[in-house]
Design a protein that fits this description.
5-stranded mixed sheet, 678 residues, 6-stranded mixed sheet, 35 strands, 30% helix, alpha+beta
Length: 678
């Protein structure tokens, strides 16, 4: 068995990247996604990609099942058992508001108040158990939740991070009475101070356990029925992968896993191509996901909000998402303003040009009408034999052109102008607004639609170079194959640095390392090496927000930790507050199991002469038609150069090269786009 398959399920297409380790060959496949039945599209893709499923050794899956379930609130009915007096933590949050200004907007917690039940117990902040929990009260609460139709339960006790004794006792009693395995303990998911974040993360984990667990179990059953005994690994939101069992236990860690895999692939491709600093833009059928890679490493955040009030505190690659995908619907609002997204036509009914019942114009319809997408050769895996230009024209004319008094072509350009402005705003958010000059970075567009807008992003944001990967439409699937195993653990310290005894932090690191090693070993994967990352959340006494301080094992004594904190604080704020006591709040540990490296040279094109254009066709740009050459992108040899305007077609995407830009092919088959010298 020598085949490794990466599978990324998106809103419109399911993408597969297949690596034959024995033959050192790669192949790519795109099939339509089956929204609501993602497993069916997943299995259809695997069957199409591989003739004999028994040849597959590993399948690595980037999934949006958990994310979509949270966004659409299609989660399991869940109950919470909590400390008396704390049932409203989930609803009170941090007293933030959906809209910063004004008194509009509301919030509905994912678990209603009547399913948040209280029991008597109390652990103090220093870990002392003031009142033990009564197992009989827990059983009564469990019976009430089951009678109310709950499928999953979460036990959240205040200060369980300091001492989980009461929470362990309650979970033991609950699991003995609960009819399934969908029970979450807050200290197992997030043993960290701050009750709202711990409650939210643990509750969302419980809500997702039946959804994600049953989805993954079905995948394994159906694969086994087809003779596939491959190990199934799942991409985490931090860009690493975990075993199927770990994903079922901690499904909240799969949030944004598909986009995270894409960022990991971009980082590896960019570093190999000599561009370690990247802004990535994943444009699929539903959304545009933006992230930043500096020095070859993706930026990680300690927490994120999937939607307002739905906070997940687990390491995640920093990704900003907006509704600007190929299927994003264009409309004119009551004030006469043209808007694009956030609503999407998805794959069913899809854009108007699909001819499957969609009547609203989308970004894809605009690109088709303007000739940038070849209606005769739609990308993907047989979703449609051809696209309907006239349906696209009619939808744009009715819903955008007529309300704005524009001809269909001008209306189509207006749609793309608005979409480009939204995408440029997302790029500025991850770069300029976080202190990064975008001119220092290369832009890497991927996803099915990203390369259509690469030149526009260069104009809008000011980046000098775009790097289009060899297979943009399946970059996230490639990231699944590239990603390493990873397990993260955290422990609250909450002590003054001066009070820490010698070796105490090192002992805590050893304890977390043992937990992570057990999880990594459980994945049963061949690894070339392991690496660890240690980070402390530190702050000055009296402060609320912490600074992340990366350290090595050699820096785990007080003097070295103080120096490391001073360096990190100075880098963040330009100064230190000398004389103030320093506190250590949390210890974070990550163990990374390095999988055998994928040689990106496998993607490189063959040497040969520069091919002639496949054809010439008209493309509408800046108010005029241009007769442009159309090239088969994958047939271009290394060092090939093409000046815009031009179109480069390939099965998984289309690249639109505007006038004034030039593209060259590098040794790995990437397309490097730059402005032509004036």
């Amino acid at each position: 068995m020598s085949l490794v398959i990466g599978v990324d399920v998106g809103g419109t297409f399911t993408d597969l990247f297949v690596l034959d380790e024995a033959a050192q060959r790669v192949s790519v496949v795109k099939v339509p996604s089956t929204r609501g039945e993602e497993a069916r599209g997943f299995l259809a893709g695997v069957r199409r990609a591989v003739e004999h499923l028994g040849d597959v050794s590993t399948i690595v899956h980037g999934t949006t099942v958990g994310t979509n379930a949270l966004l659409e609130r299609r989660v399991a009915r869940t109950g919470i058992i909590t400390t008396r007096g704390f049932r409203d933590v989930l609803e009170m949050r941090r007293r933030d508001r959906p809209r910063t200004w004004g008194l509009t907007g509301g919030f509905e917690p994912i678990v209603p108040r009547d399913l948040r039940l209280e029991v008597d117990e109390r652990t103090l902040a220093d870990g002392m158990v003031l009142q033990p929990v009564d197992p009989e009260q827990v059983l009564q609460a469990a019976r009430a939740l089951l009678a109310a139709g709950c499928e999953a339960a979460c036990v959240f006790f205040v200060n369980a991070h300091a001492n989980p004794e009461n929470e362990r006792a309650a979970v033991e009693a609950l699991r003995a009475a609960w009819p399934n395995a969908h029970v979450t303990a807050s200290h197992e998911v997030l043993p960290e101070i701050r009750e709202f974040e711990r409650c939210s993360t643990a509750t969302l984990n419980a809500c997702l356990q039946p959804v994600v667990g049953e989805y993954l179990a079905r995948l394994e059953r159906d694969l086994a029925a087809d003779g596939c005994t491959a190990d199934l690994l799942i991409v985490q939101s931090n860009g690493g992968v975990m075993s199927r069992a770990t994903a079922s236990d901690f499904p909240v860690r799969t949030a944004l896993s598909g986009p995270a895999a894409g960022v990991i692939a971009c980082a590896r491709i960019g570093e190999a191509a000599g561009f370690p600093d990247l802004i990535t833009g994943d444009m699929g059928g539903t959304s545009f996901d933006v992230s930043l890679v500096a020095g070859g490493r993706a930026a990680l955040a300690a927490q994120t909000a999937i939607d307002f009030g739905m906070v997940v505190r687990t390491p995640m690659i920093q990704i900003e998402t907006i509704g600007a995908g190929g299927g994003s619907i264009a409309s004119v609002d009551a004030g006469g303003l043209l808007r694009v997204g956030p609503g999407s036509a998805g794959s069913v009914p899809g854009p108007a040009c699909y001819g499957r019942g969609g009547t609203r114009p989308t970004v894809t319809d605009a690109n088709v009408l303007l000739g940038r997408i070849d209606a005769r050769r739609p990308i993907g895996g047989g979703l449609l034999p051809a696209l309907d230009v006239e349906r696209a024209r009619a939808a744009i004319a009715e819903h955008v052109g007529e309300p704005l008094g524009l001809a269909p072509l001008a209306a189509a350009e207006a749609i793309l102008t608005v979409a480009n402005a939204k995408m440029a705003g997302a790029i500025r958010l991850v770069s300029i607004e976080r202190g990064h000059d975008p001119r220092r970075f290369a832009y890497m567009p991927f996803g099915g639609g990203g390369a259509l807008h690469a030149c526009a992003m260069m104009r809008e944001v000011g980046v000098a170079t775009s790097l289009v990967p060899r297979h943009p439409g399946v970059t996230s699937a490639l990231g699944c194959v590239i990603a390493d195993l990873r397990h993260d653990a955290v422990r609250t310290i909450n002590r003054a640095l001066a009070d820490l005894e010698g070796g105490q932090i090192a002992e805590e690191v050893d304890a977390l390392a043992a937990t992570c090693r057990a999880r990594i070993a459980g994945a049963r994967m061949q690894l070339s090496d392991t690496r660890e990352r240690i980070e402390l959340d530190m702050l000055y006494a009296g402060q609320t927000h912490t600074v992340a301080v990366p350290v090595t094992r050699a820096q785990l004594e007080r003097g070295a930790l103080a120096a490391a904190f001073a360096d990190a604080y100075r880098a963040a704020f330009g100064r230190t507050l000398d004389g103030l006591p320093v506190r250590v709040m949390n210890l974070r540990y990550a163990l990374i199991g390095l999988r055998p490296a994928v040689d990106l040279a496998l993607l490189a094109p063959a040497d040969g002469p520069m091919p002639a254009p496949r054809e010439h066709r008209p493309v509408y740009h800046a108010g005029a038609w241009h007769e442009v050459p159309v090239f088969e992108r994958l047939s271009l040899p290394p060092a090939a150069r093409i000046a815009g305007p031009a179109v480069l077609d390939q099965p998984d995407t289309t690249i639109w090269l505007e006038p004034g830009f030039e593209a060259r092919v590098d040794e790995l088959g990437n397309l490097v786009i730059a402005r032509l010298a004036s």
